[in-house]
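Researcher: Re-running this chain for the archive, since the previous output was lost when a drive failed. Same request as before.
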Amino acid sequence: MPTVAPLDLEGHCVAAAWLGGVPHFALADGSVHRLDNGHKSVEAHDGLLAAVPTEDGRQLVTGGEDGRVCLVSADGTVAEVAKVGRKWMNAVAAGPRGAVAFASGRTAWVKLPDGSLKEIAHPRSVEGIAFAPKGLRIAVARYNGATLHFPAAAGKPVELEWAGAHTAATFSPDGNFLVTAMQENALHGWKLADGKHMRMAGYPAKVKSMSWSAKGRWLASSGAPAAICWPFLTKDGPIGKAPVELGTRGDAMVTAVACHTTDDIVAIGYADGMVLAGRIADQKEVLLRRAGKGAVTSMAWDAEGRRIAFGTETGDCGVIDVAG
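Model: Regenerated structure tokens:
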């Protein structure tokens, strides 16, 4: 039976992550908490808006309401990457060789591996940002589509158009697809080789959480009373295919998803704080945590795929040991 080690904090958890085997919880007030031989915390920002782990899993990239972008290490060290006035840093991304991207308003910046800072202006506000898995390439989610940039090279960006507001972006692990979350309760995707569109609609709520399975065969998403898992098993991805629905509950919406590190298993967090694990192959489910005080906002598996760090909108966070 799975066991839960709770960590009761005050406030909205923006991101739960593992740094060097230590669970971290970044809160909207700007504090980052960790369970490392006891509860410890550090003040990273005056108001936190976004946080993601670096590719090597050793640091957390954070963006704040104070216009700063920082790297938080597993020992609690906070290093400032950039400060851009009093702009709100509403999106951050971590890339290869220590590259970091962040956005505020209509501008995206990329801190390149050589330490130089590249500024990229856009005609509309940048809502989401993501690095491709291969090469130094970023995608920016914007109004009416997404834009692909090679920030270290000269040349025109690639514009991917689709009407509506796009709020987040993610590349498939093989780099063949780009998927965006939309304001209008849908996902949209592009097959990058030929620009083919993938419409992934029918959600009753906005998709706020997306997670790729370890081999990139599935994209799990929130925004429905089940985790909606789209198949990317063939060269055309989910075009013409129905998704697998995992952990269907009529009484609570899925608010966060996190795919296992090696297996096609999804941790599913709900609006009432419950957490389930579902296996895509046969839709088998295991209860990991009973309902709590607030909606699950973020989850992350550790490197071994045995423990899950989770956070909620009310601050009741913790670690689930799946093996018990």
